[in-house]
Every structure is written in C-alpha cells, then in structure tokens.
Design goal:
There is one protein chain. The chain has about 100 residues and is mostly helical. The protein is about 75% helix and about 0% strand. Helix 4 packs across helix 5. It is elongated.
C-alpha cells in the first residue's frame, strides 16, 4: 500500500494533523479572551497599555529621525563625516535602520 493510499484509508494517519492556519491562533485567542467576562478587563488593559507603549516609542523615534534630518541638511562636522567616511556611513545607516518605519 502506498503512502497516499494509506493516508486516505487510515483515519488516524499522523500527517493529516498538521496545523494549517497558524495565523488564526492570535486573533481567535484574543477574541476568546475578550468574550470571556473574567478575562475581558485584563485583556483590554494589556492591549491598551501595549498600544500606548508602541505609540510613544514610534513618536519618539520619529522625533529623533526628523531632528537628524534637520541636522544633516546643514553643513557641519557631522555631515562632512557622513559624506567622506564609508565606515561612518555604515554606522549612520545602522542607526537609522534601527528606527521604525
């Protein structure tokens, strides 16, 4: 008996139990936590706290990015260092790559 025939004839073949919809675990879990009255307040508080923390982080890094953009527009030692040194260009690119967006 071949493997594919065995898969269809045996109802307990192990390869049929693969987890196909991995992306649904988080939304289904969140919906279940929000629907359950005992976990609803805790879930809403955790979600709002995480949203606030991420929003503040993104706002702070955007302020840093725009400040650096203003500094780079001007002719100063930092811009000369950036334009004439390949090693520092890599450092500046790594710093800008660490910022979100």
């Amino acid at each position: 008996m071949t493997k594919s025939v065995q898969q269809w004839t045996n109802p307990f073949y192990l390869s049929q139990f693969h987890f196909a919809y991995k992306r649904l675990v988080l939304p289904v879990s969140l919906i279940a936590l929000l629907v359950t009255p005992s976990t609803q307040a805790l879930t809403v508080a955790a979600l709002s706290d995480s949203f606030w923390a991420v929003s503040c982080y993104v706002a702070l890094t955007l302020v840093i990015y725009h400040y650096l953009a203003l500094v780079v527009k001007k002719d100063n030692a930092l811009t000369r260092l950036y334009h004439y040194s390949r090693n520092y260009q890599v450092l500046f690119a790594a710093l800008l790559g660490a910022l979100p967006g």
